[in-house]
Every structure is written in C-alpha cells, then in structure tokens.
Amino acid sequence: MGQKIERDYQRFRRIVRGKVKSNLSKYISRGEMIGKKGGELVSIPLPQIQLPQFRYGQKGSAGVGQGDGDVGQPLTAPDGDGEPQAGDQPGGHILEVELTLEEMAEILGEELALPRIKPKGKKNILTKRDRYTSIRQVGPESLRHFKRTYKRALRRMLTAGVYDPADPRVIPERQDKQYRSWKETPLPQSVACIIYMMDVSGSMTDEQKEIVRIESFWIDMWIKAHYQGIETVYIVHDAIAHEVDEHTFYHTRESGGTKISSAYELANKIIDQRYSPEEWNIYAFHFSDGDNWGDDIPHCVNILKNILLPKLNLFGYGQVESPYGSGEFFDYVHELLGNHENVVASRIPDRDAILGSIREFLGTGR
Amino acid sequence: MSQFYSTNLPPDLRVVKEEIETYARDYGLDFYETIFEVVDAEDLNEIAAYGGFPTRYPHWSFGMSYEELRKGYDYGLSKIYEMVINNDPCYAYLMRCNHLVDQKLVMAHVYGHCDFFKNNAYFAHTSRKMMDEMANHGARIRRYVEKHGEDDVELFLDRCMSIDDLIDIHSTAIKRRGDFSRYDFVEKTNDDEVQTIRFKSKDYMEDYINPPGVIKAEEEEARKRLEKVARSFPEQPEKDVLLFLIDHAPLKNWQRDVLSIVRDEAYYFMPQAQTKIMNEGWASYWHSTIMTQKVLQPSEIIDYADHHSGTMAMHGARINPYKLGIELLRDIENRWNTGRFGAEYDNCDDLDQRRQWNRNLGLGRQKIFEVRKVHNDITFIDTFLTPEFCEEHKLFSYAFVDQTGQYVIESRTFDVIKKRLLFGLTNFGKPWIYAKDGNFRNRGELLLWHSHNGIDLKLDHAKDTLANVQFIWSRPVHLETILEGKPVLLSYDGNEHSSKATGESNGNRATVSKSR
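^ inputs. structure came back:
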C-alpha cells in the first residue's frame, strides 16, 4: 500500500471508529458489499461516511431504467435507500460477516496497551533504517551507481563492437543504468517479552482450559497486532513446568498435580538466561484455577514477591473458577496488590468474562 | 508505493500501443500524446481513489474510496480496467496483471476518451495541465495542514466538500458579470454623486428647462434606488455559491485558498459528469470498432466478447452509461447513413416505408464526429433519443410511490422517459441552489434560495449542509425552499436550526421580512 493512501485510509478508519472528532460520526453508515465465498453469500462490511449535500428527497423522485417489466411493477423492496437496485439483491441468506483476524484484533480495543512500557535497552533507540544494499534497474539519477553503469555500458559497447580504444569514451544508455536501492531494516521499537504460563493440571476441566486458551490467544493476538518485535515464551505446568512452542501451548492436554512454583521458577530461569530486565520489558501472564499444592504456596509467594516481581513490568494473574478446590491462590496474589503496583489479578468465571479480564490486564487506565 | 518497479510499457505492449494508435489516427481520432503507465492492482486502486491524480491533497474521503476499491478487488467483485486522465499529455493506467487482449481493449478505449477530452466543447475550458495543478493543490493543502493542524484543515475541507456541487455549470460558457464587481472599492467615489438627466439650456432658461424641484426629487429617488441596490447583493441570484463565498465570506487566507481549490477541482471534474454517457459511449464505440475491425486475433475473440459484454451489461434496472452511449451513437450513425432524419422522414406516416427507409447517404461517421464535438449528455439525449430507440432498448421510467415506499415502473411512453432522463441529467440531478442575498435583513446574513421544481429537499441533509455554509459565512444563514407545497425559510444561526413558514408560495425577500 502506498504511503500516501495509507495515511488517508488510516485517518478514515480512525474517524469511523470514533477515534477522532465526533461531528462526522452521524454521517457514518454501515455499508456492506455482498460477496461470495465458496458458493455462499457473505457480507463484507464497508463503512461509509457521506458528507451532507443539498439533494432531493425520495418523495417525488424518479428516473429511467432499462429492462423488462410491466408498468406498475415495483423495483425495490420497501425502504430501499437511493437508487433502485432490482435484480442484484441477493436473497435473505447472508449470514457471515467477513472479518479478518487482524481487523478483529484491532477492534478488540484501542484503549488497550501494554502497560508501563519503558524504553529499555539499546535496541529500541533505532526504529527503522534504510540501508543501501541492493541494485535496481530504475531509480532517481542521484542514486545512479556509476561504476556498475559504466561497466555495463562498456560491456555493451564491446560486444556491439563500437568501442574504440583510441577514443575510449563510453556512453551509457538507458538500459545500462543501474541504481542503488535500499532495504528497510526494521528494528523493534520497544523490546518486550511476554511470558504466558498456563496451569494444565488435572483439576482444570476442559472448559476452563478452553477459557484460558481463548483469553491468552486474544491477548497474544492483540499484542502481536500492535507491537512488532515482541518475543513470546509459553510455559505449561502441572507439577513440573515445561517451555513449549505456541502450537503445543494451545493444544496440549496434560493432567497431574499442581505446583505453581515450578512455572515461576522456570520463568525466572528463562528471564535470567535470555531476557535481562535491564534491556527488556517483561510481561508475565499466569492462568490457573487457583488450586495449588498446599505446601507450595509460601514458596510461590516468596518467588513471586522477592524474585520475579522486581524483574517484571507487569504480572497478570487470571483465575478461572475451580469446580473442585477453593481457588485460594487468588487471595495470596490479591494480597500482593497493595504493595506491588505491577500486579493485576482477575477472575474469569465464564467465557463472558474474558473480555473484561483482558481489559483489566491491558487497560491503559492502569 | 511499496517498491520500485518500472511503470513504462513493456516492449510487447509498446508494439501494441503503436499499432492501435496508428489505427485510431487513421479513423480520424485526434488526441494529445498518450502516456500509458502499467501499475499493480494495489497502486491502480490508490490512483483511482485519488480520482486519477496520485498527487492529490490528503483527505480521509480518498481513504474511504480506497477501501471500497480494494475490498471490491480483493473479493473479486469489481475491477478497474481503465483510468484515463484529461491532461496534455493524457495519462492512462493499465493494470499489470491484465491479459493482452484486455490491454488492447483498454488502449483502444483510452484513445476514444483522449479524443473526446481534446475535442468535446464542454472540455474546452478545462486545464490541460491538471496533473501539475493538482500537485500544487496538494502541496498547498499539506502546507496548511502543517501550519494550522490537521484537524482544523480537515474540518474546513469537509465543509467545503459538502457544498462542492454548488457551482454554476454554465458559467464557463456565459459571461455572467462585468470584469469588475460593483462592490470593488474603486467605484466608491461615484457613490455620493447621483447622476440625473439635465437638459442643455441657456442660463436664463435653466430654471424652466431643468426645474430645481423636479431635479431634486429625481436625485432623491435615484439615491434611494442606489441605496436599495447597494444593500442587496448579488444583483441576480448567484448559482456559483462557492464563488460568492470566496468573494464575500469573511475567511482567512488559507481558508479562502482551500475553498478555491475545491471549487477549481469541481469545475475540472464537471464536464466528465456532464458528458458521462457520451464519453463512455464514444470510447466504447471506438474500442469496439478498432478491436473488431483491426486488432483482434481469432484466438482472442471469445475473451474480447466476454469483456465487452461485461462492460455493456446492465446492473439490474439501472441505466448503464456505456451501453446507452454506444447504442445511441450507433443509432445516430445508422440514421445518418440511411438518411432517416429531416422533415421528409419525420413527416412520413407510412410505417412500412419508414422501416425500409434508406437514402444511402453514408453520413453516419461524419455525423457522430460532429456530435462528439458539440453535444453534452443533455443535448445529446434531447436531440437524438427517439421513440423507436426507447422501444428497442426497453427503456422505462420509474417513480417513487409514497404509499408503498417503493420505486415502481411508471411508464414506457417516450415523452415520460425522455423527460425523466433529462431531469436526472439536468444540474447532475441535484437541486438548484442560489445565493440570493448576502445582506439579508440588512444584517449581513446570507440568504440561499432553492429554486423548487417539484421535488422537496432531503431535509436532514439540507439542514446539515446549511450548517456548513453557516460556518463559512460566519453570520446566520437561511435557505428559502418549499416543503410539502408550503414555502419555508430554514435558518441556522450557528447554534440552532429553525424553520418558519413564509406565507406566499413565491416567498421573496419582502414577504420574509414581513413575517418576522
């Protein structure tokens, strides 16, 4: 997409979403395009802003059409706005609303942001850099690669037999010319690392795992859509913690006892090894049903309070409803809230609470 | 643009271009040099969103068009084949991924447009260096954005664009006013001095020939008349409301400039809307002629026919300007080839004879060249639409029925169809709005006047538009119109809207002030 239209397009999107100025908002209409996808009709949302103009009302309006039909035959369904569109109206079976995952992530909320992101490390000083590393056939004259152009012109003249050593003038032609060109080297604007920890112990039912996965998926989706160059770490734990890849994180089915400390220890180890807190913004989200091995709790709180929290920008703890146990771990985390402002605890009793929970974690108000 | 690539014609297309250009010239088409640029779909959508001018000023509305074009293209619902810019040289854009036969068709089509731009009388006033002017407009507006902030400039642009159709389409051909406005300060000196007629006389006869009493009364009367005129301006209702605002609204310099930019571009694009049917018809006539008579290879016929018919297809009951244009031009060509025109043919009542009519005049080609030079859509339809044509092409008129809230096929009678068609083309199917008084109620308020012709204004839009005019005028603004048969004065004073019935149906200034 060209840079120029990108600006206008983004401006338009922001107006539509109500991010800038409100006096156009009443002219926004939820237009749609009817498309086809695999034989089914889908509606592609196409918001439009129509500036007011002096124009005729519907009453008494008329026009000319072409085609079959008897006098008196209606052209449109009632309340059809504007031009009659007989014929190209599809039947009433449009169900799907086409939204890409990226659009969804954008819609998820613009009031969300990674809280307390700080400029850390060397990497975030540079954002983007053009490096002149390649060669192209077209370009501005100021970037002409003299040497290459000369060589090509010389070669052409030699092969054509017009090169005269007595008069060694080489005249480049259009096709000889070579231009320097650049490549954009993107560097992360802010270096951040997200650690997702999930309790997959036997006490978590499938429904609860599903909730946790949905929530972490959307947090993940949203962060990836808005921040470039973010690194993610996935940890699953029951009594032992493992670092896993993204796919495993969302698909694994394990069971067993619960030792939350194992996950915290692993997270701490990973931070020490790879993500020095001096250079990284580190966010950790932990999802559990709050049922922990009794003896483990003091150990957990200790690690969290004294070792992990000082290294983190934010620690988010999301607790799903536990059908068996007490869910007492929530209370221990909750206690930390007063003394540590980088802790957020949130309860997610059912699927409906997911969105609210995401807001609690990423809300900019905090 | 995401990356550099050459937009020049590749060698194979250059050969095709030379070939088609030669055919076009042999047929008698006359055009400026035409430069073809080959671009990606993405870039073509961008260019199209800017109305063909990649350097246009920034505004969200172009982003909106872009989204529509891009989604339409991405989902395979619509595709832009051609894009021609009225400029010297003419610029035309080709889509890189199109098949060769499409490129040929588009090129032939483009030469039709180029010829039309250059030769049609209604394009005579347009700037042929619009590429450069648009770039200048863009640079100026970008400068204002830097200086006054994006929000302010955009807000003002929105308001200007909301009234960009309040221009006088005939002003390019008619001289409406003197070179100097009578409100210019230069003529101020004459204001005190009232000229009355004095007859030449000897000294001793002076009092009898020019009686002082009468002279004094005449002077008084003339002064009154002058005052009255001075208080109400413009002299005649001004259709070019934008010009009136540029001349008289208390705008800052940058605002005045933005308004003039919007007005300039509106006038530039105006002839394209004025000649849509003819222009597309003419280009389609020529792509069809050049392709079928000269260029097409046997292997390309199916693809060509597919795309040609796609362009000519009707979408539902809507009139397709390509189709109407090409058919009407062909009809004219046929009529002038066979001599079916003039009093003799018109007066012939024998249906059979009319059908067989052929004088073998062969004037068709010559006639359509003449038509493309002197007509616009309105005169084109008015002059050449025939009952036979309406019947053959199944034209009908439709109208909105209140009770059911539906559009209904109203008639298949020639007179009605023609009337409806012409009405839709007159003033681009938009209401006639004039600036009537710039010193309304002698309080510097602006009175607009809607010349009502049977259809009421869309009220909510009218009110919002009025508010936009008010912002530009800064004093209260009024609009005289008729709603449901009753004359009404809509007003906006910057804070709230009001509407007032004004009594008489031809509510003029006097009655309005009376009802106050």
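The longest strand of chain B covers residues 432-440. The first helix of chain B runs from residue 11 to 26.
thumbs up if we can close this ticket
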